[in-house]
Amino acid sequence: MNYISLKNNQTILLADIPESNYEWFYDMNTEFILGHPERHCVNYFGYKVGNNVKLICCIADDLTHEIFVSTCLVHKDHALESFSNKLLCFEKFEREIHENFGINYTDHPWLKPLRYASNRDDQSQTIANYPFYTIDSEELHEVGVGPIHAGIIEPGHFRFICNGEQILHLEIQLGYQHRGVEQLFIEKKKLLQRATLAESIAGDTVVGHSVTFTHIWESLCGYEPLREIEFSRTLALELERMAIHIGDLSGACTDIAYQLGSSVFGRLRTPIVNFLQEWGGNRLAKGLIRPGCNQFPFTPALAQRLNIILDIFEPEFNEMAEKLFTLPSALSRFERTGLVSNADALAIGAVGMAARMTNIKRDIRSSHPFSLYSEVEHEPIIKRHGDVYSRVQIRRREVEQSIKYIRKLIADVPALTSIPPIKNEPSPNSFSISLVEGWRGEICHCALTDNNGDLMIYKIKDPSFHNWLALALSVRNNEISDFPICNKSFNLSYSGHDL
């Protein structure tokens, strides 16, 4: 067998991952997914081994809760047949491998730089000369948006090809900001520095990336977190989900000029983030999640306070949601706008809400359970039409679901106990993988250690990595004036992509 089967948050020796030649590696990983909609690639990356590149591919099976991991050693100067020519979901992974190591693919459908990171293999490739797709026609015109935007969002360039007001094609070019986060995980040796880095991967997903890092670090160190630690993490994840979804409902109302919804949903986000500050001292939950400890234990007094907040919040949220989702003018902007088909979502490997809006049951909380999600018996919210309406409906229903989970959790707050400290001694020569369902979708971190147990490779994948292409597909055949609501309905991360 040329692969090994892992569970979420499992650590194994690097030597236990079977290595095969590229032909076997190619056939095996593409066949894992072909004809299996329950499987998708959660990570695919490489790292240098002398003049060669070691490739590691991780395929998740959402029915069996397994992650199939395989590896292959290739020479950087050898041209390879691309996975992407057979399965489009690999295209960004292979573009990054090409950009980082100079590996050429003979038949990749879209082989161009992905991030323009400072350590890319070919420094002559510059972002100023990005090769946008073009159509030569006197009837068509191009519209450029960004990379400097009139707002607080981050830099990215959107190039539309339009026939009048109708969008025929959108290409999204990112790569304007880099912090070198993955390399910083290697360079920084203190656990606190690394935990702080995890909080900074994507500013709106502090809890999601922090929990992913803590799980992978605890797995590397052989540490079993107590239930009270996982209780706090589960609770924080659902509070973060609520806060962002409510804010995005406000943003969606703004983009369709529904001022009442914009104002009310914007106000309703405040008590949720304020509670996070009351609990841990920061409205974005920075400092709350750390490996092997409870920085700010959740107490019965906090549970009582949160219940009061939810008692006030819930009827107000339900009233505003009911107004929004029965307002004909709002529904006319949501329904059949920004549609992505089930086939397209499967083809590009969409995750999180971008998958669930098209009847794909892809949710790490149920498919690869972690923390206390087995206890709350999570059932993903699924919609079928793949339009803006499906995406805002999922946000509404997930807020309602989060309230239910939070109430269930805080009805029985774990008693505070003496928590054994974590021994920061990661297993040497090891590989570990952690998956977490953030509010945006699936987060994946992979870690490799060297002979001394030091981090050798740290690979991060934010859900936006998969889903930017879903946004580009969603606007085809829409009017260009529909782009803002399509964009907000996904709310993808620039920094989570560029790293």
3D architecture notes:
This protein is α+β, with helices and mostly antiparallel strands and 499 residues long. The chain has 2 domains: 4-115, Beta Polymerase, domain 2 (2-Layer Sandwich); 181-498, Cytochrome-c3 Hydrogenase, chain B (Orthogonal Bundle), CATH 1.10.645. 40% of the residues lie in helices and 17% in strands. It contains 17 helices and 14 strands. It has helices at residues 22-33, 91-101, 181-187, 191-199, 206-220, 227-255, 259-280, 300-324, 328-334, 342-348, 353-356, 364-367, 373-376, 388-410, 464-474, 483-490, 495-498; strands at residues 4-6, 10-13, 19-20, 39-49, 52-61, 66-75, 141-145, 157-163, 166-173, 289-290, 293-294, 430-437, 442-449, 455-461. The strands form 4 sheets. Strands 1, 3, 4, 5 and 6 form a 5-stranded mixed beta sheet that branches. It has a 4-stranded antiparallel beta sheet with strand order 2-12-13-14. A hairpin with a 4-residue loop joins strand 5 (52-61) and strand 6 (66-75). It starts with a strand and ends with a helix.
Brief sketch in words of this structure:
By secondary structure, the chain is α+β, with helices and mostly antiparallel strands. It contains 17 helices and 14 strands. The protein folds into 2 domains: 4-115, Beta Polymerase, domain 2 (2-Layer Sandwich); 181-498, Cytochrome-c3 Hydrogenase, chain B, CATH 1.10.645.10.
Q: List segments where confidence is low: pLDDT < 50 over at least 5 consecutive residues.
A: none
**Mean pLDDT value:** 94
Number of helices: 17
The CATH architecture name of the largest domain reads: Orthogonal Bundle
| Structural class assignment | alpha+beta
Query: Approximately what portion of the residues adopt beta-strand conformation?
Result: 15-25%
Question: What is the total tally of β strands?
Answer: 14
Q: Using the CA coordinates, give the radius of gyration.
A: 22 Å
Q: Which shape, going by the Cα principal axes?
A: globular
Q: How would a crystallographer describe the biggest sheet? A: 5 strands, mixed
Number of domains: 2
What share of the residues lie within helices?
40-55%
By CATH's scheme, which homologous superfamily of the largest domain applies?
Answer: Cytochrome-c3 Hydrogenase, chain B
CATH topology of the largest domain: Cytochrome-c3 Hydrogenase, chain B
